[in-house]
Every structure is written in structure tokens, then in C-alpha cells.
Amino acid sequence: MQRLLDEVSPQALASARHCRNLIRQAYNYAIRRDVAPWNPAQFAEVPAPIARERVLADDEVWLIWTTARNPAAVEGLELCPAMGLAICLALVALQRGGQVCGIHAREIDREAKLWTVPGERTKNHRMHVVPLSSSALEVLEAAFAIAQGAGSTWAGYAFPSPRGDAPLTRHALSRAMKRLTRAVAIEDATGHDFRGTGSTNSTGERIGMSRFIISRVLNHISDTGGSAAVTAVYDRKCLFARQTKGFGGVGQAPRQNCKPQLVTSSARAISPSVVLSLLAANVHFSH
């Protein structure tokens, strides 16, 4: 068991950890049922995960956004428009790649500007409701136009796989992000860094959102171990109002050939990296 984990860990640390945990749980069950005499994974060790500390710079965020919106403008970049839009949605919604790729029309309330991710599609298996900015909705509009045809109603997956009746996978999104960053010479950047960068900018002096609020945006369990069950629904409704108020309105789509400048309701200028916090931001682009 330890030899197997030692072989897997250098290439896929998370997979090794999940493998160890699953085997440990299976044998614990077998021991309780008197099927197995001992647990070979009980003392198996896996290196502790190393948390990424990568925060994208303002220019890097803007370069990723503009490239993903128009991948054909970058020579040698193999990136279809739909995949570029998936990267854009991950950028402005701060949600995990698998959730972004699997977004379906039935999950979106366009009038309320909300995206409800069912529990079976979230990491913690809890339903998650995401506020959608105007920029996010425009990205989705473009995605459904590609998927269903211009002028069609929103239906099915926003990012369907060309190989069948299923959405694009998060692995495909990760590979696309790697091709994009290589093409524009951005080093050591992944799609998951959008979440860390957005969180850093949101809780910092630029926006000043509380860590508790952003943890709910990211669908993390709170620092106290999760909200009490009796207040879960109440908290969800309250947090939407506070997020919207904190960002000062609804986002606007970026325009090409314009210098990005994010402006809150108080007209205080914020640099482009806060595009990651477009969940409910007021976005203006000036020449």
C-alpha cells in the first residue's frame, strides 16, 4: 500500500490522498462487518498538500480575459470560441471548472440573475446559488448562441462536448487554460487561480468584502465549520443582498480596445484584477 502511494504521489498528490482515504474507509467497513482482520491503509502516509499562493497580476487577468474572448487573434493558439467563453465564465463567476463546464440552462434564472448549482455537482454536495453579473450573462448568451445557434432560446448545456450529449470536462478546460497561458507567456497560472485571485482582491482593501461572504461565494465551509442548519436558508438570502450592495450594482460587459477600469458605486477606481469579482460588480471601460 505504501509503495503504491509513494509511486502515485509525485505525479498526482490529490489522487494518492483520495485513493488512501477510500481504501481506508472500505477496510474499516469490512472490519466492522468481520470481513477483514486489519486495515492495510491505517498507517499509510501521503505528503501533505501544498496550498497554491499564486495571485494573478492585473495585467495577467486582463490578458487572459481579452485572449479568451478572442482566441483567433493570438497566432498559434488552438482554442475554440466556446472554450474561450468557458474560461471567461470561470473568470467572472469564481466557480470551480467542473461546475462551469457543466452549467445547464435549467440552472439559470436570467430574470433574477442567479445560477443554482445542484448539490450533485458541487464539491461539498450542497446546493450553491451564484449571483451572475451582466458580464457573466453576456458570456452565457454568447455560449448558448454557439451551442444552440444564434437567436435560439437558452437550452441544454452552455458548453456541450463535441463528442456527445454531455458538457465539456474540467480536464479539457484545464488543458485549454494551459494552452492559453503558454501562448501569451503567463507562467504558472491555472484556472483555479481565478478563485484565489478573486478572493484576495475581494477581501483586500480594494473591495473590503468580509471573508465569511467570499467563503459563501466560493462555496467553502465557513471558518466556524459551517452555518447552523436552522439559519442556512436565511443566510443565503441575506448574503446575496450584501454581495450586491458591497460591489455596487450589476456588471457590464467589457468592450474591445478599451483600457479596463473597474468602478464601484462610489466611483472609486479599481484595477483590472477585480474583474474576477464581477459577481455583482459595476464594470466600466474607458478609452
Describe this structure in words.
Helix content is 42%, strand content 7%. The protein is mostly helical and 287 residues long. It has 2 domains: 1-50, no CATH class; 58-286, hpI Integrase, Chain A, CATH 1.10.443. It has a 3-stranded antiparallel β-sheet, with no helix packed on it. It has a 3-stranded antiparallel β-sheet with strand order 5-4-6, with no helix packed on it. Helix 3 (58-69) runs antiparallel to helix 4. The chain is globular. The protein starts with a helix and ends with a strand.
Keywords:
287 residues; mainly alpha; hpI Integrase, Chain A; 3-stranded antiparallel beta sheet; 42% helix; disordered C terminus
Layout of strands and helices, then pairs:
Layout: H1 2-8, H2 13-32, H3 58-69, H4 81-93, H5 97-101, E1 108-109, E2 114-117, E3 128-131, H6 134-148, H7 170-183, H8 193-203, H9 211-217, H10 232-247, E4 259-263, E5 269-270, E6 283-286
Antiparallel strand pairs: 1-2, 2-3, 4-5, 4-6
Helix pairs in contact: 3-4, 4-6
